[in-house]
Design goal:
Number of helices of chain A: 10
Structural class of chain A: alpha+beta
Order of helices and strands of chain B: HEEHHHHHHHHHHHHHH
Number of domains of chain B: 1
Oligomer: heterodimer
Largest interface: A-B, 25 and 17 residues
Number of strands of chain A: 20
Order of helices and strands of chain A: EEEHEEHEHHHEHEHEEHHEEEEEEEEHEE
Radius of gyration of chain A: 25 Å
Shape of chain B: flat
């Protein structure tokens, strides 16, 4: 297979600061050239450390980082052909927008005329022409972000690394800058590696989402795959949009299993590719929140096709296009239904109502247990 | 009870005024007034208005020689304290990873201040003297055959003593402004391909400018206003501006000493305001 210049491969990548506890445990991952890859995880899961190791600001304790077919461990950032956009941007406070963006060219020894010609083209690309002579402190958050992006992109790196690039912005701007990042990535045609703790951001932007927990990759794949088919409870809960039911397997037959929990009735789930499951095993089953239908308790359902749990409405949140209804279907854990707005208001529920939460058995997914 | 707004304002600043007026404004006024009086030659002042004292100070070749000497020491001291102060602060901020160790080393820099200025200065004498430690060591190992005489009671000794006393005044403000440089800004420069020297030249120096200015003000005004170190360490061979009006005072020429003091104050003020022009010192003090 031909190796493209922006391919990244992490092989057995580990990092430990004190030699005892490791923050990254032997990560293996391939990011294809030109992909938009998001590392997603809570703070402290090691995602930023991985990014900094790819950037060359941190040395791995063990393992290899291969970019475009070349092991770059030990090389300086410039030799790697990577550029990093730092959290809260780290713009040079004493330099104008133009000089901030031109900095990398300046230290490469380009003449003033040359570097300003290139810089001004880049400034135009990020639409900052009117602000080119301002200092960073005189810019808004979104403008600073564009300067940081331009400063990182000016050297035409093969990989652009973004450390929580949107976390310093307010909600509205974040959505706007998301589009900007996407546009820049398409225009530059290079690999973007983006670290975030926001699942919304990750699935909106990424071709490839890497979900991390405690220094390990939980699941890596296209955004839709990770969101709609989470591998285990952790991924399902972190990405949201899923209800996770657990229980003990009682019977297995006809491609279905029945699982039960002491304080809940027995439910069915389809058995797909999980051949190793046996009677008595504890399992987790995910059901998408938007697959749940809420019926009045006297409604008729076909028990062959649909599961149903009787429950009480705990809270209702209006979300615009849908209504989030929180139920007490399973003890101590969240069980939520996303009801389309029009459907909800045809027969509005109120807090305390008893409803039947039902879903198609075939839509339930068996999760891996780790 | 209502108190008018201006009165409230004055009340707020009154504690400061109670200190500043008797201990700062009044003495300066006394000096100003004395500088236009005449002396009766026996330590008494004759109230009058004359600019003769200023004329004498400003037209005397001696004044210019004194200023030349003092400015020479000031510039040399400023230069060496700046170089030392900058690199010590740079080392403490950017090379010592452990913050506890950095604070420890920083405190070690202040150890010389645990004893008095005079003792610190005098302790150079057994080191630099004709039969001092350095000379005898060099003689012993045969590098020289007779003692080096420029070590003590010379301009060299004066500058050594000043640098020893004043480097800390550079370290502290420069350390302060360097410590405020966001480490990620330095990392961003590394990411852009900047060498260590580029980072120092393009990032660290510009961002420590206010600390450098503050340190320069401390060092320059202390050296310009001092006479004791020059007198002792040069063995009387170098004079200084303040040394001259100290002599005036000892022969009871108060008006002429006062006029010299006013001239020095004006020159220092001009110098400080020039330095302040290059940086926004308020940023340093208020942040």
């Amino acid at each position: 297979m031909a190796v493209s210049r922006g391919d990244i491969e992490l092989a057995g990548l580990s990092k430990s600061y004190d030699g005892v506890h490791s923050v990254v445990h032997g990560i293996n991952l391939k990011i294809p050239d030109g992909a938009y890859c998001c590392f997603l995880g809570p703070s402290g899961c090691g995602k930023t450390t991985i990014l900094r190791m790819i950037a060359g600001h941190e040395d791995p304790t063990d393992g290899e980082i291969v970019i475009g077919g070349e092991n770059v461990v030990g090389l300086a950032p410039v030799q790697r052909g990577t550029a990093m956009m730092f959290q809260s941007y780290a713009l040079f406070p004493h330099l104008s927008v133009r000089d901030n963006i031109a900095f990398a060219l300046r230290v490469r020894g380009l003449s003033k005329a040359d570097r300003y010609r290139q810089t001004d083209a880049m400034i135009e690309k990020v639409r900052l022409t009117e602000l080119a002579d301002r200092l960073p402190a005189q810019l808004s958050g979104g403008q600073q972000q564009r300067v940081a992006l331009a400063r990182a992109a000016i050297t035409e790196p093969r990989v652009l690394l973004l450390d929580e690039p949107l976390s310093a912005l307010d909600e509205q701007l974040r959505v706007q800058m998301r589009l900007e990042l996407q546009r820049m990535q398409r225009e530059l045609g290079i690999t973007f590696v983006h670290v975030t703790h926001s699942q919304l951001e990750a699935i909106a932007l990424a071709d490839m989402v890497v979900v991390m927990e405690a220094g390990q990759i939980k699941q890596a794949g296209p955004a839709r795959e990770v969101y709609a088919s989470p591998r285990d409870r952790y991924v399902a809960e972190f990405l949201g949009g899923q209800n996770v039911l657990s229980g003990k397997v009682e019977t297995i037959e006809g491609g279905r299993l029945m699982f039960a929990q002491p304080d809940r009735k027995t439910l069915a789930a389809p058995l797909r590719g999980n051949a190793r499951i046996g009677v008595g095993d504890r399992i987790d089953v995910a059901v998408r929140r938007d697959d749940i239908e809420l019926l009045r308790p006297d409604a008729e359902i076909s028990p062959q096709d649909r599961s149903a749990l009787s429950s009480r409405v705990l809270a209702i949140e209006y979300q615009g296009s849908f209504v989030k209804v929180m139920l007490d279907a399973i003890a101590d854990e969240e069980f939520v239904a996303y009801v389309p707005e029009r459907v909800f208001f045809r027969d509005p529920l109120v807090i305390g109502d008893v409803v039947l939460a039902t879903w198609a058995i075939d839509h339930a997914r068996l999760l891996e247990r780790t | 009870m209502t108190v008018s707004r201006p009165l409230v304002g004055w009340l707020y600043i009154s504690p400061l005024m109670l200190v500043l007026i008797p201990f700062f404004v009044l003495p300066i006024l006394v000096v100003l007034v004395a500088s236009v009086f005449e002396t009766d030659g026996f330590g008494g002042l004759i109230p009058t208005f004359t600019l003769a004292n200023y004329r004498n100070v400003l037209t005397s070749a001696l004044t210019f020689n004194l200023y030349y000497e003092t400015v020479k020491f000031t510039v040399l001291t400023w230069f060496f304290t700046l170089i030392l102060g900058f690199f010590i602060a740079y080392f403490l901020v950017f090379h010592v990873r452990n913050p506890l160790l950095a604070i420890g080393l920083f405190l070690i820099c202040t150890v010389p201040f645990w004893t008095s200025n005079i003792i610190r200065m005098i302790s150079w004498i057994p080191l630099l003297g004709k039969e001092g430690l350095i000379n005898s060591a060099l003689l012993r190992i045969g590098l020289i055959h007779e003692p080096l005489t420029f070590l003590l009671y010379s301009s060299f000794a004066v500058v050594v003593a000043y640098v020893h006393q004043l480097t800390i005044f550079m370290i502290v403000p420069i350390f302060n402004s360097m410590a405020r440089i966001d480490k990620r800004v330095v990392e961003a420069a590394v990411d852009a391909g900047a060498s260590r020297f580029d980072i120092m030249r393009l990032i660290v120096v510009p961002l420590s400018k206010s600390g450098i200015a503050l340190g320069s003000i401390f060092v320059a005004s202390i050296v310009m206003g001092d006479f004791f170190v020059t007198k002792v360490m040069s063995g009387g061979s170098s004079a200084s501006v303040v040394g001259a009006f100290y002599e005036d005072i000892s022969v009871l020429q108060y008006p002429s000493a006062a006029a010299s003091a006013v001239v020095l104050t004006v020159i220092l003020l001009a110098m400080v305001s020039l330095i302040l022009r290059t940086v926004d010192i308020r940023k340093e003090i208020t942040q």
